[in-house]
Amino acid sequence: AALVRQGFIGCSPLHPSVAISIRSLAVYRQSHRVCPRLSIQAEVRKLCHLHNVPYHRYLADQYSIAYDVYLEVLHRVHNRLEHALGHDEPDWRLKNACPACFYKLEDETPLKFSFLCQMDGNNSLKRTDANVIRKYPERLDSRGPRTDYWLSPEEVDKFKDEVKAKSGAEDDEDYDDDWEDLPETDPVSTCIDRWRNAGPEQRKKMFALFDESGIFLAACRHGTVLLICDMIRSGELAKYPLATVNKILDVHGSDIACGFDIGCAFEKTLAKSSLSPKVKDLRLRMVVGSFHGHAHNRGCQLGWHPLYVPGIGRADLEGCERVFSSSNALAPGTRHASKFHRHQAVEEHFAFWDADKYANLSTLLANHYREALKIVGERMEELSALKAGLGIDDDSEFEGFLRQERLYLSNLKKEPPEEALRFEYLEALDNAAKLRCANLLCLYTGFCLFASSMSLNEARGQLNRLQSIPAGDDMRAKLLDTIKTLERQLGIEQRWEESSSQYITAKAKVAERNYRKALDALERLVVQRLFELTKLNMSGTGASTALQRRSDTIKRALQHYNMQAAQLNPPRPTLTWKQIVDYTFIAEFDLLHLSREDIRDYRWAQPAVREATVKYLELQRAQEEIARLNVEIRRLRTAIHDEQSHVAETLGRLTRDDLPLATELMKRWHLRLAVNKIHSQRLDRVEAWSGFSG
Fold first, then answer.
1. Which runs of consecutive H residues, i.e. helices, occur in 118-209?
2. In what helix (H) or strand (E) does residue 261 lie, and over which residues does it extend?
3. How wide is the angle at C-alpha 83 spanned by C-alphas 77 and 85, nearest 5°?
């Protein structure tokens, strides 16, 4: 206590010989919050240089001990303040994390979705298992997380058996890519097959080197972090989003829209889980984030992309990527930390992140309002011109175009079984003809064997070919048996000849089948390229090298696609390398899949109509965004007013009963008051805009 009164914290509980100044610890805390890469070791090295003393490892250990004590003191003071303010009720932080989302007013305009959230996993914050990489076992530490950000492993493991892992040979395969080359069925099945974190549970393995393999979190649409859970010795298993959704539904209730990069597939998981009745009763709506949505199947986009979901507004629901872009900087300092110190660092980081998000909240609302007003003005003018040119009188026609496209895509199935049998029959006929030609060639060569002046080695080669004729005859006999079986199944009375109309038609369909396969392969590679492009601004990931290597593969796939496209009748459009590298939306590929029905004559598939439909949807979402922002601005302004009254009342009470605590509250309130003043001024400017309608 004597040391603390002098402004120091000792590095041992009894008889300390070394102490660290509280001011130094406070400076490091703020520096680490704004620069998470700054480690304690780097801070101590800096202090050593400032004081002209040599650095020793034990100095960093001593500083770490004092810093833990300092944070513990701050945490206990914070808990006392929360109790004084009445903020210590269960889930109070989760219920009040973002005033724009959760400070609901009695007479406000009802919204289709009560609030919008987003969730995702990230494996940057892995922590190594000390028992695996060190000679000695990890020292026991009974300290746990200090805050209610975390969902406990027990809460998460309630859902560990909700999705059963499938057994099979694929367990041993290596799934390096988020997108895999698998046949298309329905849109959601395609996403389940192609996205790594939507795939079977046994794919989501993690090296035994790591104890915690990352974090899974949920945030509101403004970026405030709501919940975090550790991914323990696994990839992104279904139990993490299931536990997160369960908690959000329990606390926030009905009519929630939740963005997830595999929201389409996860909706199926929810429907099969124990949460299904709760999800239906509370009308949870899963959505796929804007960026990830453009890498999904077109049919999936029409159901889950934010542009096509009424009520979402202009929210991209990709905020978790922005959260992770900041928290990734914590990784170097937490990779080899203890469990407690990792939790402590993560909590400190996200507490500061949330405070920063609150400080920027009015800026975010103002920017979104400005963008929405601009889009409404531009799209109304553009849409009027397009509607006049296309002869569209009523906006309901755009909804009809979307229904027609959804109906068309829902009717696309895997190739019919009879058609698959016809392809198999055609392949068997071709193989039998090739074997017959090979055998005839060998016989002809045998007749000429002794009539020519062959060398001994050439003669031996010809004799070996002649000896292979019986084996070829056996294969041809088996093929003929297969052909007869297929003819019975297909009801073919007369065998197809190369000149027959059935043979020619089937050959054309095979060419189109090969074209679609080539297009699928090209599409898969371009999607992988898009994923790599998102990482190019992250240092040390090796994404640039991977992209350069992938480009050669894309070029080969592009050549194969162009060759298959040219063989169709009529030939399909070929693609150039420039078109490929400029692609940003994978849905552009889907309209090249002309499959069994040519859609080019459908009105909804015409480029001008599609452009007008997109502009109509953008106008609708922008108008919804303005309606939501009008509500959120009013919530924020009211929350600021009510908070000021509540804190003033609490300060008066604490000044009488607990002056030191009142002093600490006043100190913290000064910053909040300054931030709220900026919010009020900025909201005043927004409300003065000519287009403001709140």
1. 130-133, 153-157, 187-194
2. none
3. 105
Residue 365: pLDDT band by 50, 70, 90 thresholds? very high
Only one residue has tokens 């279904």, namely 238
Q: Which residue has the higher pLDDT, 508 or 41?
A: 41
Q: Which of 59, 78, 208, 195 is nearest to 131 (CA)?
A: 208
Separation CA 555–CA 534 (nearest Å)? 20
Print the SS3 string covering 546-590. Answer: HHHHHHHHHHHHHHHHHHHHHCCCCCCCCCCHHHHHHCCCCHHHH
- Backbone angle region of 233, left / alpha / beta, with phi > 0 → left and psi within -120 to 50 → alpha: left
User: Other CB atoms closer than 10 Å to residue 661's CB: what's the count?
Assistant: 18
CB 94 within 8 A of CB 251: yes
**Residue 165 in contact with residue 202, Cβ under 8 Å?**
yes
Instruction: Determine contact, residues 248/258, Cβ cutoff 8 Å.
Output: yes
Query: In sequence order, which residues have a C-beta less than 8 Å from that of residue 57 and are 6 or more positions away?
Result: none
* 3-class state of residue 534 by DSSP: coil
Please tell me the distance from the alpha carbon of residue 539 to that of residue 537, in angstroms, as a whole number.
Answer: 6
Alpha-helical segments (H) within 258-338: 263-272, 276-282, 290-293, 298-304, 319-327, 331-334
**Mean pLDDT, residues 581-587 taken together:** 50
What is the C-alpha to C-alpha distance for residues 146 and 78, in angstroms, rounded to an integer?
11
CA angle 217, 220, 223 (to 5 degrees): 85
Which residue's entry shows tokens 């000896």? 467
Question: How far is 655 from 410, CA to CA, in rounded Å?
Answer: 67
Q: Measured at the alpha carbon of residue 683, what is the angle toward residues 678 and 686, in degrees to the nearest 5?
A: 130
pLDDT the model gives residue 19: 94
Average pLDDT over the chain, rounded to whole? Answer: 83
Residue 231, amino acid:
M
Q: How far apart are the C-alpha atoms of 385 and 390, rounded to whole Å?
A: 9
Q: Is 560 exposed, middle or buried (0-12, 13-18, 19+ CB in 10 A)?
A: middle
Between CA 587 and CA 584 the distance in angstroms is 9
Question: What is the pLDDT at residue 497?
Answer: 82
Instruction: Name the nearest CA neighbour of 631 among 177, 99, 152.
Output: 99
What tokens appear for 265 in the block? 């597939």
Q: Which amino acid is at 162?
A: E
What per-residue confidence (pLDDT) applies to 558? Answer: 84
For 122, list phi and psi in degrees, rounded to 5.
Answer: -150, 135
> Are the CB atoms for 589 and 519 separated by under 8 Å?
yes
Q: Of 187, 175, 178, 181, which is closest to residue 523 (Cα–Cα)?
A: 181
SS (H, E, C) 16-85: CCCEEEHHHHHHHHHHHHHCCCCCHHHHHHHHHHHCCCCCCHHHHHHHHHHHHHHHHHHHHHHHHHHHHH
659-687 and 57-85 are packed helices; what angle lies between their axes, rounded to 10 degrees? 80
Nearest to 610 by CA among 430, 392, 407, 436: 392
In sequence order, the β-bridge partners of residue 231 are: 214
Structural contact between residues 528 and 178, judged by C-beta atoms closer than 8 angstroms = yes
Pairing assessment for the beta strands 127-128 and 210-220 based on DSSP bridges: antiparallel
pLDDT grade for 639, boundaries at 50, 70 and 90: very high
H/E element holding 256? Answer: strand 256-259
Mapped onto helix, strand or coil, the DSSP state of residue 224 is: coil
448/684 Cα distance (integer angstroms): 100
Radius of gyration of the chain (CA): 33
Transcribe 164-219 into DSSP letters: PPPPSGGGGS----SS------SHHHHHHHH-GGGS-GGG----TTEEEEEEEEEE
In sequence order, the 6+-apart residues with CB closer than 8 A to the CB of 410 are 186, 299
